[in-house]
Amino acid sequence: MKKGIFFVFMLTASLSGAMAQKISGKVFDEKSKETLPYCNVYWLEGGGGAITDAEGVFVLNRKNDKQTKLVFSYTGYANDTVSIEGKTTLDVALKPVGTTLGMIEIKERVKSTYLSKMSLEQKEIISSEGLKHLACCNLGESFENSASVDVGYSDAVSGSKQIQLLGLTGVYSQLLLENMPFLRGLSAPFGLGYVPGNWMESISVSKGVATVKHGYETITGIIDLEYEKPNKGDLFSLNAYVNNELKSELSAKTNWMINDKLSTGLYLYGTTNQFKAYDHLGKKVDGSKGDGFMDYPKHSQFNVVNRWTYEVPDGICSQTMINYTHEDRVGGQMDFTKEMRGSDSIYGLGGTTDRIHFFTKNGAPINNASSFGTQVSATYFKQDAFYGLSNYKGSEGDVYANVLVNSEIWGGHSVDFGASFRYSDTREDLLSIPYIGAALFNSNSADDKANFYKTEVVPGVFGQFSFKYDKKFVATAGLRYDYNSFYNAHILTPRLHFRWKITDDLIFRGAGGKGYRSANIIADNFGILASSRNIHVDEVLQMEDAWNGGLNLSHTIKLGGDREMTIALDYYHTNFVNQVVMDLDKSENEVHFYNLDGKSYSNAAQLDINIEPIERFNITLAGRYNDVQTTYHGELKQKPYVAKWKGLVVLSYKTKYDKWMFDLTTQFNGRQRIPLNVGYPNEYADAYIYMLGQITRKFKTFDLYVGVENLTDYKQDVPVFGADQPFSQHFDASVVYAPVMGRLFYLGFRLNIK
């Protein structure tokens, strides 16, 4: 019984053995939840013991009734003695040395951002502590200290954000919630704003293809969110935030233990900035009047989650959650209100969104060497939006189910196999947008209307084999088969991963495989609606597919005490076999979509250095190079809006006992190619520096924090082309390569009751 249900569901539940004489379990770090490999486990009485494997799992025999207690010993952690009376499985959390001393509690040191040493894939983890170093009101604001993930606005007026990973847009990565599909399809354009920061326990970013258990859609990586668990979280917590543009947010959580098996949590979030609008460029030192468009749309959002946890120590473990989100958004020119929708005298945008998301995941042991698990998720999404005289209506229903069996076989190796099923019904309606092209997605187009409808039924099966050698080397080879009914496509997805622990501090990883995805041309490129460009679909679009491979080398150097330096170097290559190309270069007034005819690839190399030169002072240095090129109407060009290079410097200092925290982040963003656009004078935008900082004062039960974003007040010169003629063919608000909002100050308050 190795990784099985733990990997799939990330549940901290033990799996029972078939024989009373066998004791099994898993050992992990109390705070980070990272498993602890090669931990010593031995009987307090009678002698004998075992060592956990590379995944932190142990199995040993109980020889007699006198053996009632197990001792767990691991370098850098306090020993723990655990009674096994009435138990056949154990889930043991060890504390780093110095976390407790008698009745005096000493807070353990938790890294803000770190690279996992134990995971098979290269994985960067942003802890809950790391999220506190940022304003972090939502997921879109959680990556400002990350060199791997870029977040930017899709346009200058809607507030929609998008991510980049390995130089490619976020549609080629999977966004998961506790290892289950979360924000995909039509939810993606505004989805980064649907996840409040203080709901998250951690964020893990894995580069490259994922294992076959996660499906065929992952090409560039996985971003997996961990929400707080009802049985692990605080009794009550509260986070309040306000900035100088009068945007305010309030988030609250409460958790109850109903009994020793059942617990529940209720999480509430609300935000609004309906009070006052600020003009693009209107706060310039030179006194310019601005462009007449709002910095950020007025909006309000209500978000609620109810989740349940059920755990039986020697049996079933279950997690269930339901989430409802409602959002209203209005933007555009300064004097626009939602009652003016449809007006041709003042430009506005906005609309309403409703989203319901449900998941349940359950696991149980089969015997001492096997486990069984299920995942089910369902999402309903509906959006009614408008951009000037154009109207967009989108709806999506998505159901996903996954069944997994994990079993240990001879020699300590293991196999995973299972089946999955997805039903997805996506409907996108565009009205009053000139549309030219082939029929797409059951299109029934009129001159002023284009429908993009598709229904996908996707059954699939998969299997993978994990090979382990001498506790130093792990390799996983997997293969899955899926059938997509909409494209009538038989999809074969091979994946390979390995981790070689050369020494305890030197780890070499590799991953490779193929990925596929079904494109949603409007939702994937939502920012294009904030322009006057006519949409052309030049041919019937096929599924996208690409190969991705990468290598990673990480080395940890001890500096004395608990201080250390970590150096990581990685390189990933993505090569598209087919890609749905969005061509902005063919015409100044048009956007063309077509299947790739030529080459399209991405090369991404990154160096990360994290060092603690003196106690409580951490420095992160990172540099990244991206070479992303695509063939546009027969010519291989750099992909627009992708910086060839990026640098990152993060300085973080804590005073003794963590009473004060000081954080300063500086991003160095290289030049980006700008596609052919009305009014843009140069092919490349200038490089720029973006800075942000925060000061936090901790008290016994609450924190106060103040901060600033865009410290240097850098803004791109022209956020909106044709701002004085928004209904002309010269209007384009989708050309975003740098901040469109100026310096922003904020104040926040965090309360935690254990």
- The CATH architecture of the largest domain would be Beta Barrel
Could you give the count of β-strands?
47
Using only C-alpha atoms, the radius of gyration works out to 26 Å
Task: Give the percentage of residues in beta strands.
Answer: over 45%
Distance between the termini: 34 Å
Based on Cα principal axes, name the global outline.
globular
Main sheet specs: 22 strands, antiparallel, barrel
Write down the overall mean pLDDT.
Answer: 86
Name of the CATH class of the largest domain: Mainly Beta
Please bin the fraction of helical residues.
under 10%
Low-pLDDT ranges = 1-20, 98-108, 438-447
Using the coordinates shown, work out and report the CATH topology of the largest domain: Maltoporin, Chain A
Structural class: mainly beta
* Number of separate domains: 2
The name of the CATH superfamily of the largest domain reads: TonB-dependent receptor, beta-barrel domain
Number of helices: 3
Short note summarizing the structure:
The chain is 2% helix and 55% strand.
Give the secondary structure arrangement, pairings included:
Elements: H1 4-9, E1 22-29, E2 40-43, E3 49-51, E4 57-61, E5 69-73, E6 80-83, E7 89-94, E8 100-101, E9 104-105, E10 113-115, E11 123-127, H2 128-131, E12 149-153, E13 161-165, E14 168-169, E15 173-177, E16 180-181, H3 188-191, E17 200-207, E18 221-227, E19 236-243, E20 248-257, E21 262-272, E22 298-311, E23 317-332, E24 348-367, E25 370-387, E26 390-408, E27 414-431, E28 435-437, E29 449-469, E30 473-484, E31 489-503, E32 506-517, E33 534-537, E34 544-560, E35 563-578, E36 580-583, E37 590-595, E38 600-614, E39 617-632, E40 635-638, E41 645-654, E42 660-669, E43 672-673, E44 684-685, E45 688-698, E46 702-709, E47 744-753
Parallel strand pairs: 1-7, 15-18, 28-33, 33-37
Antiparallel strand pairs: 1-4, 2-3, 2-5, 5-6, 8-9, 10-11, 11-17, 12-13, 13-14, 15-16, 17-18, 19-20, 19-47, 20-21, 21-22, 22-23, 23-24, 24-25, 25-26, 26-27, 27-29, 29-30, 30-31, 31-32, 32-34, 34-35, 35-38, 36-37, 38-39, 39-40, 39-41, 41-42, 42-45, 43-44, 45-46, 46-47
